[in-house]
């Protein structure tokens, strides 16, 4: 027990240090709202600028293909028809010469506190009117899907356009 002397010294030392400075000012002002603790759902309004979203949309347009579906053992494309109706493209940050996806990837890593190395390529999806993806999990139960190469520990959704 150092009494008040030890406590005063600790406070003086900590007051002279700068905390929270790490050279990335955009992270200082990212507002968020906790929507749920279990499962954890965090909402980041205005996570990126409209012009950045437009550039990502333009980058993905020429690569869009009908979205694929991971099949459980015993399922086929025929008996799961209508489960997922959309267009999509996988684009990695390393493919993007503009650096936009690299910036977004870094920002996602910072706010989620999950290293970039744990991520996968961006799955950019386009849903037109009446298109959908039925309720599903973003992780695969090996008992249902067999041996899978990777498992997601989290999903980050970034809406590139306004939706109702």
TrEMBL record:
Q: What broad class of enzyme is this?
A: oxidoreductase
Matching SMART domains = P4Hc (SM00702)
Which EC number(s) does UniProt give? 1.14.11.2
What keyword terms does UniProt attach to this protein? Dioxygenase, Iron, Metal-binding, Oxidoreductase, Signal-anchor, Transmembrane
**What GO annotations for molecular function exist for this entry?**
procollagen-proline 4-dioxygenase activity
Lineage, top-rank taxon, reads Eukaryota
InterPro entries (UniProt xref): P4HA-like, Pro_4_hyd_alph
Give every Prolyl 4-hydroxylase alpha subunit domain span. 39-163
Protein name listed in UniProt: Prolyl 4-hydroxylase 9
Q: Species name for this entry?
A: Stylosanthes scabra
Tell me the classification of the organism that encodes this protein: Eukaryota, Viridiplantae, Streptophyta, Embryophyta, Tracheophyta
State which gene encodes it. Answer: P4H9_4
């Amino acid at each position: 027990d150092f009494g008040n002397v030890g406590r005063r010294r600790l406070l003086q030392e900590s007051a002279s240090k700068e905390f929270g400075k790490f050279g990335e000012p955009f992270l200082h002002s990212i507002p968020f709202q906790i929507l749920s603790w279990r499962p954890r759902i965090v909402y980041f309004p205005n996570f990126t600028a409209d012009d950045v979203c437009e550039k990502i949309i333009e980058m993905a347009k020429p690569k869009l293909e009908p979205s694929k579906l991971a099949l459980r053992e015993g399922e086929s494309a025929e008996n799961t028809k209508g489960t997922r109706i959309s267009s999509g493209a996988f684009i990695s940050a390393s493919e993007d010469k503009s650096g936009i996806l690299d910036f977004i990837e870094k920002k996602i890593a910072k706010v989620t506190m999950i290293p970039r190395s744990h991520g996968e390529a961006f799955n950019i999806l386009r849903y037109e009117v009446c298109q959908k993806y039925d309720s599903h999990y973003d992780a695969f139960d090996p008992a249902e899907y067999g041996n899978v190469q990777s498992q997601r520990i989290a999903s980050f959704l970034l809406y590139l356009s306004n939706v109702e």
